């Protein structure tokens, strides 16, 4: 039956979402079995039938053979396959240098495309390598985590980390095509799938209708249901790409890409306090951040008093933390506020928040009294 199911999936057309970015416009394809058909799907956008594939060890073991076969089938040659260790540490200058050198040493030229097969780490590293190697190569994203499919593979931000902080060096480099194969999510650890779902819930709260879908059907996506996952990916990409198309380089002060940071002011502070060693995944921090952003919005009178309860109970129902008390460690309100004042989004030391009036109606503000934030954090047990 598995073979038959695969054959059926292989003949169903993927859903296609055009991202309108003028001469950098591209498509996001969402569906099952796209990795196996990658050669035929990407061939039309390649400058020449040759690619460099960049992946990590975990993803290579699970999905690289399928990609290699899919490329060979369409006559797309692989100049080199470059495999980096899994994990955030691979987003570094040394790793970037070795990836670019390996690609060029293997014979990559200006008509060679870079294909990223992996999660957000591989996408950010490979995308930055593609942006700078030979002053810019065609870039294809094949995201393999839910987070990468709904968030990092869309929008053109690429980059690496410094000791000073995350994502401090990078470039905008739009992909030429994104293949979101929901089938590969089947091998993703459930905790990673849930963490990616936090960004879907965030997109839901920004968009409105998608939030109603999350409350009704989101649990099915978190349980791995392929139809529900495909819907979550498609609608998330629709929301994010529309926001990006309106504000490609995050230049808008009000709204625009900054809205995508809903839940992230609190989330980044919690993540930074925990260190980036896996104690708290980014999506888990964002989930708590969404709960806190809803609570802050209600306390300031911007949204209904019911909304925080609904946000928190939905996230908790799908197995995500949504309150500081859901996390195992204790946090100091002062330390968290110190982090939020130093956040990349902060202006002149004023914390910057995305607040909610209702699902589908969010706004950015730097005008929140620190005391309101402190009281909230204290009430949350800090
Ligand atoms: P990740 O790339 O580290 O992947 C998480 C883990 O899952 C890794 O161990 C990976 O090897 C493994 N994995 C990947 N696909 C798998 C699969 N199909 N089956 C089994 N295991 C699999 O992490 P992530 O959560 O995908 O991405 C996080 C990164 O994305 C961060 O570096 C973050 O800064 C970046 N990011 C970038 C943007 C952007 O706009 N560029 C947006 C959000 C996040
Ligand atoms: Mg995020």
UniProtKB/TrEMBL annotation:
Positions with a binding annotation for NAD(+): 120-124, 144-145, 157, 166
Superkingdom of the organism of origin: Bacteria
Co-factor note (free text): Binds 1 Mg(2+) ion per subunit.
GO annotation, biological process: amino acid biosynthetic process; aromatic amino acid family biosynthetic process; chorismate biosynthetic process
Enzyme nomenclature, EC number: 2.7.1.71, 4.2.3.4
Reactions performed catalytically: shikimate + ATP = 3-phosphoshikimate + ADP + H(+); 7-phospho-2-dehydro-3-deoxy-D-arabino-heptonate = 3-dehydroquinate + phosphate
Pathway the protein contributes to: Metabolic intermediate biosynthesis; chorismate biosynthesis; chorismate from D-erythrose 4-phosphate and phosphoenolpyruvate: step 5/7; Metabolic intermediate biosynthesis; chorismate biosynthesis; chorismate from D-erythrose 4-phosphate and phosphoenolpyruvate: step 2/7
Gene Ontology cellular component annotations, sorted alphabetically: cytoplasm
Cofactor dependence: Mg(2+); NAD(+); Zn(2+); Co(2+)
Ribonucleoprotein is among the record's keywords: no
3-dehydroquinate synthase N-terminal domain segment(s): 82-194
Keyword hit for Transferase: yes
Binding site for Zn(2+): 199, 264, 282
Residue stretches making up the 3-dehydroquinate synthase C-terminal domain: 196-346
Family that this chain belongs to: Belongs to the shikimate kinase family. Belongs to the sugar phosphate cyclases superfamily. Dehydroquinate synthase family.
Function: Catalyzes the conversion of 3-deoxy-D-arabino-heptulosonate 7-phosphate (DAHP) to dehydroquinate (DHQ).
Protein name: Multifunctional fusion protein
Organism: Falsiroseomonas algicola
Covered range of the whole protein: 161 to 542 of 544
